[in-house]
């Protein structure tokens, strides 16, 4: 067993914290051949990986895909289909809803986001920064067409999210004067500045870390890069990208070896409906000089001062999503990581 094996997670933990059907209900759905449209792949936090930041990785599958349980079936056969509610965290958060077709980023349904007292309109794929303690909640805009392709939903932040526990449930905020979707108290759209929309960044448009392979527009397509220069005062950032399959190559290096004074989180997943957790590729990730070869969706946490990389993808057959998250700006001192 390697020294850093337990800094990589390939299994879905804390299933009782997930929205929607309970673990028992999810298992029953799998037994009878039904799937829920919002399928979690990872839940990460310091209980699962020592010192880690919080993260969730989810695929959202359109109702047109095979074996999707209808909302009517879910309401009749599951017990936890409570609606979302505006909530805040004591830590900043990166939150995203990104369509899987980089050439058609509007194929992401029609989303908005409650941000404090307003609701910003997000007509295309997006990655957003949520400041600490800001009330927020994704909303479905009325009249929007449904997505026809799967959507990647990913969120991360330097804290522990205890969804469903006291202080983090609907009962805890029921007496507050909360924003209502479709009826915001403010309509300035000022908080749209916290979002990077699809197409807003292109190769060469932002200064990314030198240890990351440049976006090239072919193999690597940009999703979003966020730091305190892109969004002033951001304390947690990301480098997120599509990895596109194409002519077969033996390997592609995405990250050079580097060491940072703070923690960082890496997640990698493939758009693979028939094998939800499979990468359809091999990923070689080095942590502290140790080589880890992975063939499943994974989340990895790199502690401060530990060398991360190289990261190499081999024999890639499916489109993939790579997300790297870590503190930026003033957050580096606040959220160094364990």
Topology of helices and strands:
Layout (H helix, E strand, L loop, with lengths): L7 E2 L13 H9 L6 E7 L9 E7 L10 H7 L15 E7 L11 E5 L2 E5 L3 E5 L5 E5 L10 E7 L12 H4 L21 E3 L22 E7 L9 E8 L7 E5 L8 E7 L7 E10 L2 E7 L1 E5 L5 E7 L5 E8 L3 H4 L4
Antiparallel strand pairs: 1-17, 2-3, 3-9, 4-7, 4-9, 5-6, 5-8, 7-10, 11-12, 12-19, 13-18, 14-17, 14-19, 15-16, 15-18
Explain the overall architecture.
7% of the residues lie in helices and 35% in strands. By secondary structure, the protein is mainly beta. The protein has one domain (5-334). The protein is globular.
Question: Can you tag this structure with a few keywords?
Answer:
mainly beta, 338 residues, 6-stranded antiparallel beta sheet
Query: Helical amount among residues, as a percent range?
Result: under 10%
Mean pLDDT: 90
Biggest sheet character: 6 strands, antiparallel
What is the quaternary state of this protein? single chain
Measured distance between first and last alpha carbons: 21 Å
**What general form does the structure show?**
globular
Please count the beta strands (DSSP E, at least 2 residues each).
Answer: 19
Percentage of residues in DSSP E strands: 25-35%
The largest sheet has its strands arranged as: 1-17-14-19-12-11
Unreliable residue stretches? none
Structural class: mainly beta
Total domains, how many?
1
Helix count from the secondary structure assignment: 4
């Amino acid at each position: 067993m390697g020294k850093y094996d337990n800094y990589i997670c390939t299994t879905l933990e804390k299933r009782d914290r997930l929205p929607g059907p309970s673990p028992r209900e999810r298992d029953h759905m799998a037994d009878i051949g039904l799937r829920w449209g919002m399928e979690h792949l990872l839940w990460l936090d310091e209980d699962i990986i020592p010192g880690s930041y919080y993260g969730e990785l989810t695929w959202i599958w359109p109702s047109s895909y095979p074996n999707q349980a209808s909302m009517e079936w879910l309401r009749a056969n599951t017990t936890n289909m409570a609606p979302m509610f505006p909530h805040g965290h004591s830590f900043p958060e990166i939150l995203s809803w990104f369509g899987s077709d980089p050439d058609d980023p509007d194929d992401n349904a029609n989303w908005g986001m409650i941000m404090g007292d307003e609701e910003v309109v997000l007509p295309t794929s997006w990655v957003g920064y949520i400041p600490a303690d800001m009330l927020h909640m994704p909303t479905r805009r009325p009249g929007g067409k449904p997505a026809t392709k799967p959507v990647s939903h990913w969120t991360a932040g330097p804290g522990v999210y205890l969804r469903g526990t006291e202080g983090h449930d609907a009962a805890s905020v029921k007496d507050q004067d909360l924003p209502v979707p479709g009826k915001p108290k403010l309509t300035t759209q000022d908080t749209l500045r916290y979002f990077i929309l699809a197409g807003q960044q292109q190769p060469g448009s932002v200064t990314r870390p030198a240890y990351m392979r440049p976006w090239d527009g072919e193999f690597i397509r940009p999703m979003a890069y966020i730091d305190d220069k892109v969004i002033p005062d951001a304390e947690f950032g990301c480098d997120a990208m599509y990895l596109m399959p194409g002519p077969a190559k033996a390997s592609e290096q995405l990250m050079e070896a580097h060491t940072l004074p703070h923690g960082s989180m890496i997640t990698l997943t493939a758009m693979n409906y028939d094998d939800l957790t499979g990468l359809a590729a091999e990923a070689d990730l080095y942590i502290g000089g140790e080589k880890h070869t992975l063939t499943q969706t994974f989340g990895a946490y790199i502690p401060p001062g530990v060398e991360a990389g190289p990261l190499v993808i081999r024999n890639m057959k499916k489109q993939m999503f790579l997300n790297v998250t870590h503190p930026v700006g003033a957050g580096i001192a606040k959220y160094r990581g364990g």
